[in-house]
Amino acid sequence: MSKFTTKIERLRQAGTLNPRPQRVLAAWFQTGGFFDANDLVQVKYEMLRHAQQDGVTKAEAASLFGLSRPTYYQAEAAFERDGIAGLLPQPRGPKSAHKLTPEVMAVIEAHHLSGAPLQAREMTKIVRAQLGITVHPRSIERAMARKKKR
After folding, report:
1. Residue from 62, 75, 67 nearest 19 by CA
2. Which residues 6+ apart lie within 8 Å of 107 measured at CB?
3. Nearest to 85 by CA among 138, 45, 126, 114
4. Which residue, among 74, 18, 15, has the nearest Cα to 42 in the 3D structure?
5. What CA–CA distance (Å, rounded) separates 51 from 57?
6. What does 17-62 look like in DSSP terms, one character per residue?
7. What is d(CA 144, CA 118) in angstroms, rounded to the nearest whole number?
8. Of 28, 50, 103, 138, which has the highest C-beta tally within 10 A?
9. Per-residue pLDDT reduced to its tens digit, 47-83
10. Cα distance between residue 137 and residue 133, in whole Å
C-alpha cells in the first residue's frame, strides 16, 4: 500500500476525506506537494485564509475550493468559535437519549413487569398519556437493554 493510499484511508476513517477533490481549482493544490485536495480540513482552512488574507470574496473562495457558500459560512463560524478544531467533522444528531429523562424512565420501569417481555409500543402510549412526551419504541428498548447490562 502506497503512502498516498494510506493517507487517503486515514482521512476516510477520520471523516475528513474530501468527497470531491477534483473540484478544488486552487493552483497550489494542483502540484501535489504540501497541499492535498483530499484533505477536507486543509481545503477549508485554505479557503478561509484565501478570503481573509488575499482579499477575494467569500463566494469566489468557496468556488475556487470546490465548496458551497453555505459551507464557507459554516466553516467560518466554526473556525471563529473553535479554531482549527472547528473544521473537524462533528457527529450529527442528539448526543444521548435526551427524551429518556429519569422521570420517563421511572414511568417505564413502573409499568414494566420484571421477567415479562418488554412491550415498547405499549410503553410509548403510557408515556405519552402520563407525561405528554413522544418517545420512539426503539429508544425504550435500547434504554432497557442498557439497564439490563448494569
Report:
1. 67
2. 126, 127, 130, 131
3. 45
4. 18
5. 6
6. B-S-GGG---HHHHS-SS--TTBHHHHHHHHHHHHHHH---HHHHH
7. 8
8. 50
9. 999 999 998 999 999 999 999 999 999 999 999 999 9
10. 12
